[in-house]
Fold these 4 entries.
Entry 1:
Amino acid sequence: MTNFTFPKGFLWGGAIAANQAEGGYLEGGKGLTTVDLMPTGKKRWAIATGSLESFSPLEGEFYPSHEAIDFYHRYKEDIALFAEMGFKALRLSISWARIFPKGDEEQPNEAGLQFYDDVFDECLKYGIQPVVTLVHFDVPVHLVETYGSWRNRKLVSFFENYATTIFKRYKDKVKYWMTFNEINMLLHLPFIGAGLVFKEGENRLQIQYQAAHHQLLASALAVKACHEIIPDAKIGCMLAGGATYPYTCHPDDIFKAMEKDRESFFFIDVQSRGEYPGYAKRFFKDNHLNIEMEAGDEELLKTGTVDYIGFSYYGSRATSDDPEILKQISSGNVFASVENPYLEKSEWGWPIDAKGFRITCNQLYDRYQKPLFVVENGLGAVDEVTPEGEIHDDYRIAYLRKHVAAMGEAIQDGVEILGYTSWGPIDIVSASTGEMKKRYGYIYVDKDNDGRGKMERSRKKSFYWYKEVIASNGEKL
Ligand code: BG6
């Protein structure tokens, strides 16, 4: 038992993304998206970072998003299991290419719209609030091939058309929204984050920050449209969060860590405060970047600020100003980090740091003074099925227990948190590696890295644990 309770109406639940769960990648009129071009194996990283161009699936490669866990056909069964755990919220994303298969059409695809109507109805049937991300790592491929994706300002109006179509259609069903998933991912995995592919010799940084400007404008337009169309809705941004620690107390390390955090905060500073921060202007100047802006852009950013700060937290990061220390950068994580000797790591090398979660919550709330929404957190781990068909995932329970407790402490510190949707409540495809083996779920899906398995769903030990957490509103951890 804990010595505190979570706020009444706290939104406990889980989070998935269209491209990692749905499958049905060309069904119901859906167009091809960037993630549909990301195979498992060696080529994945080069494609994800925008270094290797690939505009159609290649012979002999395995593409995990094409079938994923077949949520497209099995959503009823899956949502029933979420309801059994007592979910109050389900975070999911809409695939842009289900609604606008090419991305630049004027009229939407009715079959795609109907699919999400059915999914939301199924959630609402159980009293589960859908929490919807407009774009979670999937840009229609036609927009990449024809316009160069988010490097082109035209994407802003295509996105605006998509967003307003969605708000009008689901205004009575969805009250929690987010614009771009982990918007700062654009700097780390530019193809995943923004559909960017680079040519030899191009100035990547220039293209990335220009694309960022376009996404920030698109986000502001979506916020404004959402407020107009659904006045009682809340719409947030979404940051790949995690505080950066200085490796030592040397002032150079402290400054370096601050700069590293600002690299990510830049996006949220604009989305939440409505203007480019001074440090960004200096960064652009120092790096000879020239961000093209049009009259009215600043005004738009000012008026399209978010209602809450959505973020993911998997672990903290560390950095140093000392080139020798920087050699100890750990592999495995998208966010390069110096190894922190005080922390354990997951099987994929991601640092485990529950205290860092409390720190991150406090840091974000101090900075923005807006409610937070923890929309991703969890442990990617290998699960073994016993001969009796059971999965004893005590390691996952241990990770989550400590993190939920840290979040409870943050709430007692005065941080306002709307809810907690842990990542991958049902096993889904890993975004970074494309593996099925990297599992986050309370629900096991019988499918392996090569696509073999019956895809049957079964409850892990953590399923029963989380059910109790929700039923006791966080008192029984
Ligand atoms: C976040 C993404 O980066 O982390 C998710 O928003 C992703 O899409 C999650 O799945 C966990 O990362 P991974 O690589 O373990 O799936």
Entry 2:
Amino acid sequence: MIYFVTSNKGKHAEARALFGDLVQKDIGYTEIQADTLEEVAAYGIKEVASRLDGPVMIEDAGLFVDALKGFPGVYSAYVQKTIGNSGILRLMERVEKRSAYFKSVVAYAEPGQESVMFKGEVHGKIGFEERGRKGFGYDPIFYVDDISLGEMEIEEKNRISHRAASMNALKEWLEARKG
Ligand code: IMP
């Protein structure tokens, strides 16, 4: 059993489909202002590990739009809450270069052990409109092969997503350790 500390139901549903034995803990943790997702996750995992007795995992993600020089990146949560998907589409009006990627950093710790971190990315494009009501956050404006993540079932998103890549890397690490 692993505690997954997140308030995001969408993240939990995706993680749950990968790890059977996951318990969501919506207890919050400090998300420091930093230049990288790795720094945010490294700080957060120490905090949650000190508060929960058992294996713990957190995950920090961001959307990086090439034409916007990586924006919103580490500010993705704030930007989603403020200008949202329509705001990103407005910033991208008349922009031809639409490439973007999601990055996920997962951090995991067991009591008394150093934490470990795994990363994943998915590359795609910012569409011209929001499509699909599945998923969460930026999913409706992020397209892979002309289908938005918002149009995908969890199983489809988990075949390609940044989060599935980072979490599968953690799973492999846990399995390899078992021997
Ligand atoms: P955080 O990892 O919870 O800090 O997420 C940062 C922001 O990116 C939030 O607004 C999330 O909704 C958004 N986000 C994170 N992962 C995804 C994803 O898989 N799809 C769409 N939006 C995401």
Entry 3:
Amino acid sequence: LRQHHQDMRGRTLKQLFARDKSRVEKFALEAGNLTLDYSKNHVNSSTRRLFARLAREAGVPAAIEAMFTGDPINRTEGRAVLHSALRSKISDQVALETPGVKEVWEVLSNMEEFIDAVHSGEISGSTSRRLTDIVNIGIGGSDLGPVMASRALRPYWKADMRFHSVSNVDGTQLADLKNELDPERTLFVICSKTFTTLETMTNARAARDWIVETLGHSAVENHFVAASTNHDAMNAFGINSKYRFGFWDWVGGRYSLWSAVGLSLALVVGMDTFRRLLAGGRIMDRHFCQAPMDENMPVLLAMLGIWYNNFFGAETQAILPYDNRLERFPAYLQQLQMESSGKSVRMDGKPVRCDTGMIIWGEAGNNAQHSFYQLLHQGTRLVPVDFLLPVRSSGADQSHQDLAIANCLAQSEALMDGFDEDDLEPHRVHPGNNPSNTILFEELTPETLGQLIALYEHKVFVEGVIWGIDSFDQWGVELGKKVATALASVVAGERRYKGGNGSTRKNLARIRKSR
Ligand code: F6P
């Protein structure tokens, strides 16, 4: 690949198109409801062959098998990685012998029963009023998934049901919701794998105080439900024993939307829609397990990522969806990719010898055009782009979506072709030759959303296999948490700062002074 890169970097995308008339057919791939057009990349048939060879040599096929059979591939935490089991059918036999896997379908049925009872009013608030406002309290994977998917699936919200979320520790989200919501109709869903996370527990306690103040202590058991693996902590909080939904240690936080962490989403869109989301994830799982390396969509996306990152030196990648309902999808992928691939030590404890995870960023299409596309067209950096493009509008007049489509196609064309003419002033020149993928699908349905999420999950996994890192741990978030816990009592004025960081000491003094 390194040698081949020397050849390829001298050729422009336009030249690659001119040389091969069948390029658009050759460099497109379908999986489930998704079509990936990767023709506008610095690749040819040899590149694809070499990609597949690298994937095989790095052991990607064996790694996929290890994941789906429940091997403890998250080695630094000694855990299996089985979010795919959450969306499998029992007949798929995904790691059925791993403790907990056989309980997956029972938890889904319990969720369904609970959700139906909330919708019918059989389960109601403490004053017997229907529960219509669902507030997800969580952070990281326990927030981004439900928030992103609830926005993406806005047309599927059940009549009268509304989704809200509280994640940040500063308390402003809850403060605003308290002004807006009727406590009698509000159901808080506390989502936390550990049920110890500072932000989530702080917000959950504040929400409980509000319910106690407005409806009395006994109302807590009617207005709180939880998704967690920590039963003792749920007991201590006062969660009604019938209002608890468990999951397992083989579900990583950023992969947990498919588990009971999806409860708040499912409460708003209904279990039928949630199951369609799971079915979409399963379609991508099957493709990932069955397709050969050179026709495997997650593998190809991963190899393209590696190509630009490790060969062309790109540091960032932009995710640009042309449906505003996917506006939180880039943020969701940020956690998925940057928490998974932000590693500099390999699984064997040795330092990596190449760059790992790229910086992921993005924004919904046209908004982004009027904001940062200038840098994509004329900046100095190489930024590979993924365009996500639905053909049909998800609930608006099609004429609007047609304009979104025109803009998306125009941008990928302009990024590739650029613009130059004799005597054109230099600042008007668009150099072009910028690579992009276009992921096209008919409409943003629960199934397509499930496929998109699983596509990127597996892409991240494959990249990690090639680099030899553990994509499923997140030790890098621990230190900051520890320092913050120690500083909390200092900021609260309960004790003096004993740390040695001069800047922190000075800032604490400034904060004290301005109080
Ligand atoms: O930020 C680190 C992290 O562990 C994420 O991986 C996770 O999604 C988030 O915190 C929330 O954790 P929990 O669900 O245990 O509250």
Entry 4:
Amino acid sequence: MRLKIIAGNWKMNKTTPEATELARGLIASVGQTERPRVVICPPYTALSEVAKTLKGSSIFLGAQNMYFKESGAYTGEIAPSMLLTIGVAYVILGHSERREYFAESDSIVNEKVKLALKTGLIPIVCVGEKLPDREKGLTEEVIAVQIDGSLAGLGEEEIRKIVIAYEPVWAIGTGKTATPEMAQQVHSFIRKRLRERFAAGAETISILYGGSVNAENAAGLMNQDDIDGALVGGASLKIDQFIGIIRSSGK
Ligand code: PGA
């Protein structure tokens, strides 16, 4: 059985006091929930304090990015070991906002995925088509290139350790969610692609859906065979919404 994961991507929101307050609120309601697995990804500056707040709860901590080198003269960047030592378990890699605003290519994402795995972080690797791709019928081609490029060189054992998030770019922060059927179609395509490349490793990978997930539409999405959770942006900042998503997502 695949692990169901509900991950909150707080993006560039929340000062450290605000972040710890939100984390405390989550602990009060879902802090002992083992299934689904709950992961929160605050900004870097809040990670250390949120890590302390989460101690003793079942909520996991994630980062929103990392650099693809272990240390050195890379001003402003963060190495995976820095994240691990403060209690971060997951790291979002290749989010469409990183790809779009920070020119992250599949090969950069691939470097990051490899280093995250080597270091012991669990990568949440994001893929997703833009609206013109979908309108031209190119969704599967685009996703295939991103999957192949981002996961290049990994073996079957490594692939078992990663999480994938399918996030159609046109659905992120727009209020336009893919219908459960549209999302399932792409999730099933992703699993098929993974099966071709990584054989049995593909069956256990959790593939999350992301893009305007909220407490109202989560259950319908989570009911689909190949949707194993959600990567939630805006609604993860609103405690009632995020708890609603966790509660309606099943185990
Ligand atoms: P959204 O963002 O839920 O606000 O659409 C999802 C994401 O970017 O991960």
